[in-house]
């Protein structure tokens, strides 16, 4: 009887120690989860699709993001989130705690990359930018299925491995939405019959000036000319036709270029060219929708990066003469500098 009593006491004591030990272990684990992690500088961790808890733990440990892999794995199981950890590319910050890392994986706070399409580039240039981004995956859709001006130039966020075709479709949807909004906000007296015509004119405005305050003025000049039946006489339209859609040539425009008849040469054709000549941004679209009230019919470069506007041909010719003098002075200065 006495032996049985001692045995019971020993078993109760052992159980107490086990419970106390387990409690202490759980307490230590909870403290460790909130302790700043070992990283002293940010590290990127890539977790492919299908990676289980063991693989995720190993990747984090190999990156130096956690120093107790077994405890991390046990915590994931005890928290019952092992099926909620999301694949992707993650940036683990210096000192980021294991608890915050788990939250980050559950919430899917993956690294966001950015791809910017500058305003005024062509469809071909946009295609090359998306195709050349090594962080994207998948084949490009056929460019023939998209018209010039079809994509909205702005900054897009994406995650590593996103599909190129899906990103192109996002860019197309963004332009469709921006064009619909601009068309809905247009002045009722515009000499434009369709959203497509607005897109064409906005692309010309985009290529004519990169100065935000000038876009409505440039749009106003072109609207005035269209209303009067005057040809637009826009140099960027000539360049687009000569460049076969790249929007760039490696020389200046010649007088013979202005007389070279093609579907985009607005010195030779009446009205708008047959397609846009670039990807216009939101500001250019709204500039065409709400052009400045102006009497100007002409503009030319002023030598400072902007333009000077004129109401009459005589004023414009005087401004052109000033610009030609500036060009000659710059050529002389460049030649003198080269001689030195």
UniProtKB/TrEMBL annotation:
One Gene Ontology MF term: lytic endotransglycosylase activity
Pfam family for this entry, one: YceG
EC number: 4.2.2.29
Enzyme class: lyase
Keyword field: Cell inner membrane, Cell membrane, Cell wall biogenesis/degradation, Lyase, Membrane, Transmembrane, Transmembrane helix
GO-annotated cellular components: plasma membrane
GO biological process, one term: cell wall organization
Domain of life of the organism encoding this protein: Bacteria
Alphabetized Gene3D superfamilies for the sequence: Classic Zinc Finger, Endolytic murein transglycosylase
Marked site positions, Important for catalytic activity: 208
Role description: Functions as a peptidoglycan terminase that cleaves nascent peptidoglycan strands endolytically to terminate their elongation.
Family label: Belongs to the transglycosylase MltG family.
NCBIfam families in the cross-refs: endolytic transglycosylase MltG
Protein name: Endolytic murein transglycosylase
């Amino acid at each position: 009887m006495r032996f049985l009593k001692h045995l019971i006491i020993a078993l109760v004591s052992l159980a107490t120690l086990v419970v106390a030990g387990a409690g202490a272990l759980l307490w230590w684990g909870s403290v460790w989860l909130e302790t700043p992690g070992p990283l002293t500088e940010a590290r990127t961790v890539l977790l492919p699709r299908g990676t289980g808890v063991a693989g995720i733990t190993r990747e984090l440990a190999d990156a130096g993001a956690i120093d107790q892999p077994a405890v991390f794995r046990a915590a994931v199981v005890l928290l019952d989130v092992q099926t909620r950890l999301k694949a992707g590319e993650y940036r683990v910050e210096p000192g980021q705690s294991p608890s915050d890392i788990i939250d980050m994986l559950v919430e899917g706070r993956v690294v966001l990359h950015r791809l910017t399409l500058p305003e005024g580039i062509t469809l071909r240039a946009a295609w090359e930018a998306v195709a050349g981004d090594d962080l994207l995956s998948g084949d490009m859709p056929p460019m023939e299925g998209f018209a010039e001006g079809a994509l909205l130039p702005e900054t897009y966020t994406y995650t590593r491995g996103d599909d190129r075709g899906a990103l192109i479709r996002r860019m197309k949807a963004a332009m469709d939405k921006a064009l619909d909004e601009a068309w809905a906000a247009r002045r009722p007296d515009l000499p434009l019959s369709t959203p497509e015509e607005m897109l064409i004119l906005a692309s010309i405005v985009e290529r004519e000036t990169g100065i935000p305050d000038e876009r409505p003025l440039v749009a106003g000049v072109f609207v005035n000319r269209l209303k009067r039946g005057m040809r637009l006489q826009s140099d960027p339209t000539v360049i687009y036709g000569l460049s076969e859609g790249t929007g760039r040539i490696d020389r200046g425009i010649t007088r013979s270029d202005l007389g070279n008849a093609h579907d985009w040469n607005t010195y030779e054709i009446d009205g708008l060219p047959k397609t846009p000549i670039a990807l216009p941004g939101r500001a250019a679209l709204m500039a065409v929708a709400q052009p400045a009230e102006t009497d100007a019919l002409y503009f030319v470069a002023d030598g400072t990066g902007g333009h000077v506007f004129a109401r009459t041909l005589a004023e414009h010719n005087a401004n052109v003469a000033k610009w030609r003098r500036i060009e000659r002075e710059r050529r002389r200065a460049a030649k003198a500098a080269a001689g030195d």
